Amino acid sequence: MSPVESAVRYVLLAAAACFVFGLHLMNSPRSARRGNALSAGAMAVAVVATAVLLLDRGSVTGTGWLVLVLGGAFGSGCGLYAARSVEMTAMPQLVSLFNAVGGGAAVLIPLQDLLGSPHPAALGARVTVPGALDVVIGTVTFAGSLVAAGKLQGTVPGRPLVFPGARALAVLLPPAFVAGTVWLVLTPDQTAAPLVLLALALVFGVAMVLPIGGADMPVVISLLNAFTGTAVAMAGFVLGEPALIVAGALVGASGTILTKLMADAMNRSVAAVMVGGFGTDGGGAATDAGGGAASVRPLSADDVAIQLAYARKVIVVPGYGLAAARAQHELGDLVQLLEAHGVEVSYAVHPVAGRMPGHMNVLLAEADVPYPQLKEMDEVNPEFPQADVALVVGANDVTNPAARRPGTPVSGMPILDVDRARSVVVIKRSMGHGYAGIDNELYTDPRTGMFFADAKQGLIELRAAVRAFVG
């Protein structure tokens, strides 16, 4: 090993340590930006160090360097453009696309080794086993993430799409992956094995995500993120690169833990999510718990403003409707006005509110909402009985009292106890359903008033009305 290669190995080890520390800093929103910057900086150093190693070895030709430089410039440009231009409403789709890119990139590494090796018959299990796992996991991630992004964007219907034979594929393909892996290990010189695994994984990725409804998308995004990390770790084993192994393992482990937490927040197992069938499109008139027609109590902006202006404690419950209307800044302005008037305001954030893990936290941080005001479900639920007003802005299924009784699609799902506040105000454009496809019984509660408006326009009207009352 040359002195340059030894130095590069130490640099990559230091970068891996920075990945670990950066992830630790992301435990708190106060330090998350520093953690993200540290991890990004470590990755930049790792890329430069790898380029130095390739230069020292002389294993890359002039054309190869051109491809590497152009590829790095193009990828960096796309990432920078996406970070600066994509709206918060499209962030879940962007995360899914990044998962697809990560999984697809990880797949190319073992394919190059398995199909381009000058001595394929000499490849041992140290390469073929992680290589086969990388091909399967990375390709499933690639295909599944593209379908998930399509569902989130609306180009693919958000409802569960269960096509004939979907269940059979879900049962038959995993054993086929095992057989393909054994085939590859026993005959590494056969190019058909990795290509068959690639084709089967593409089918499985599509078949896995299509039957999953929109309500489960936060869990799916988190799971696919874990898949991406696992595929990258397998690529690290193929190349013998510790930095890739550490980075991939961190993403895989953290994504797996997050997936479990998200599923627990919906009172559903990860297996139940992957079976699919939860979350439908639909609308219709509201009905009460007994099945009869139910009535709602509409409110005007002045009606709501009076309640807010004379309240002592207000709990705001944000949901995807807030993100869809891009109304986070208007909500922040309204809250600042109430606080200046002496009203105590906090935010109740459900773990699966929005369309990806942490969606509401990121959205509210964009509006400079102080982190101490953001309260998780377990912390804020005991406070609802003391709240004069619970202001629900675009949240639906996570506030539905039907979750407390059996026989509904959301039965057993932990919810925010909004209906236990002294008064409830819901800002919503219509009585349309959430992703679970059922009526929200909160809307017909006698203590609930419905302010029918787009979240952004409604909050602007409320702010003006509250200002008129408080002077």
From TrEMBL:
Residues 10-462 form the NADP transhydrogenase beta-like domain. The keyword Transport does not apply. Belongs to the PNT beta subunit family. Its EC number is 7.1.1.1. It comes from Streptacidiphilus cavernicola. Keywords: Cell inner membrane, Cell membrane, Membrane, NAD, NADP, Translocase, Transmembrane, Transmembrane helix. It comes from the Bacteria. The keyword Zinc-finger does not apply. It is a multi-pass membrane protein. Pfam families: PNTB (PF02233). This is NAD(P) transhydrogenase subunit beta. It is found in: Cell inner membrane. The chain crosses the membrane at residues 6-25, 37-55, 61-82, 94-111, 131-149, 161-186, 192-212. It catalyses: NAD(+) + NADPH + H(+)(in) = NADH + NADP(+) + H(+)(out). Gene3D superfamilies: TPP-binding domain. InterPro entries: DHS-like_NAD/FAD-binding_dom, NADH_DH_b, PNTB-like. The transhydrogenation between NADH and NADP is coupled to respiration and ATP hydrolysis and functions as a proton pump across the membrane. SUPFAM superfamilies: DHS-like NAD/FAD-binding domain (SSF52467).
